[in-house]
Amino acid sequence: MMGVGLVPGLQLLVISLLLVSTWTLEAFQSETIQTKLGALTGRRTTVGQNNDTVYQFLNIPFAKPPVGDLRFRQPVKFGRWNGTLDATKYGPSCFQDVNSSFTIWYGTSEDCLQLNIYVPFATSPSIKKSVMVWIHGGGYFFGTASFYDGSMIAVEGDVIVVTVNYRLGIFGFLSLGDETTKGNYGLLDQIQALKWVKENIADYGGNPSDVTIFGESAGGFSVGLLSLIPQNKGLFHRAIHESGTANSLLTLGSPVEVTTETAKALGCQTTNSTILMNCLLEKPADAILTQSTMVSERLCNLDRMHCLYFGPVIDGDLLTRTPVELMSNKTTEAYKFFESLDLMVGNCRMEGSLYLSMLGNNVQYQKDKNINVSIGLSHQYLCDVMSPNIANFYFKNNRKVSQAICKEYYVADNATLQSRAVLDVYSDLFFISDSTSTLNAHINSESSTYQFMYNQVLPFKLGPEPTWYEGPSHAEELYYLFTMEYFDRILPNVTISDSDRLLAHQMRKYWTNFAKSGNPNSAGLPVWSVFTNASKNYMKLSKHDMGVGNDYRKNEMKFWLQTIPNLISDSDTSRAKKLKTDSLFLLIISLSSLNFFINIMLVRY
């Protein structure tokens, strides 16, 4: 689904970060330390223009290999290792399609539950550093911790950065919706990694009582879901969502059908869950992956605008209700935990690049719909294809919804702006409105709330894109956050300017300041104002327009969070009611005949 299309795709992000990781691992000195789990040898190296020293401890196991009888089961604590652990090289990615994510650099394996730790040079046994745990994205079907070198964040922010692997695809999120196979194994991996950090990070100079989790896309979804699980209290204290929140339409998977069809393709009997699972435990991992990928691709429908089959589900244990329900009921332990956390939420300006990438990579779909994305996305496509599809799949084919979307995003006499507006539909529906809802749900708490919008286009092209397209695209902030200063060394004819380096530094300082105190501000940085119900301030992150904005996409958010729910309510007033909560109106609609995706859009602050 995420290909190298007409706009920068996640695969190119993967390539770039892998190249950076390769470059940073060229020269190092061995560094052996003693921990409560045993001795390990890591790396001492220098990074960045200032040649700052950083320690890197890589491929540390936090759970036993999830193979054999541990496949499709909760992770089991690893414990101590024998001898001296070699922590100088990245480990394999969790099992996934190597063609989609270029994991050939490090290989793939079911034995993948490891983490990487990046420690700035100056540590103290008495003054422990704040810890930031990174959860990678990739739609829950690809990606790995080793894509993300946390060295620059560690040294510039004086924090300890931890990046973690978790099981992906069918291995991480297989579910039959019953007690035998509840699913959420990848989410449980993330929690086990956080438990490991809580118990062991002090050995590396970190403060186990000062942990921030942060992630992007599926990593952002995960951060949001982890923040609604009250059993996680004490494992982390702040949360940063980048292009993903718990209440996103893309958060929850629908794995039952794919699981069943995959089992059939592998010759497993599917009428009894226990027999089916025992059969799958005996199958080779590559056969399971191949069949599950083929089934997912066959079932994928681009008209639905996304195809997340394997992902977190409502399992009755970790997640007892939908994220929307948990955030809208302030009496629950889930909400109380959520509001106790300091919160930062943000997006890239053009999250709709994901949709353009999917369209651009599907030639047959373009032919069927009579479109050419290189020329543009017309108002006919908006009104005759996209809007009806949204209404059909997410609003029970409500014609009023389709007509409203067409009207709201229609641009007259400007093909360029109309094309961008089509992508804005995707951005606003699947990303921005969910971020806004999450922020609104949090602002009455005693913890801090901040919003950002990343607006900076990269100084180099990642691939061909239509002349009408304007970024920045989904995930592009990661280049500045992790690896900006390396690109002029690994990309030909690319020069990274001082303003690029400054933006990277500012973002790292904002992120790490927030991790330390819940406030991103410090001396020398443009002031970032808190998000409140009255102001709805957000920080514009860019080289030439850094500063505070107010009420991001106010009209569009009113459309998705008020107008659309009201249209649905007007269509079915007997099953909907409005409640006034504080100074906000919360529309709560419980329609048992509609699927979860519709409920997400109907329950809004």
TrEMBL record:
InterPro entries linked to this entry: AB_hydrolase_fold (IPR029058), CarbesteraseB (IPR002018), Lipase_GDXG_HIS_AS (IPR002168), Neuroligin/BSAL (IPR051093)
Keywords: Membrane, Signal, Transmembrane, Transmembrane helix
GO molecular function annotation: hydrolase activity
Transmembrane domains' residue ranges: 584-603
Domain Carboxylesterase type B: 30-560
Signal peptide region: 1-27
Superkingdom to which the source organism belongs: Eukaryota
UniProt similarity note: Belongs to the 'GDXG' lipolytic enzyme family.
Annotated protein name in UniProt: Carboxylesterase type B domain-containing protein
Organism this protein belongs to: Magallana gigas
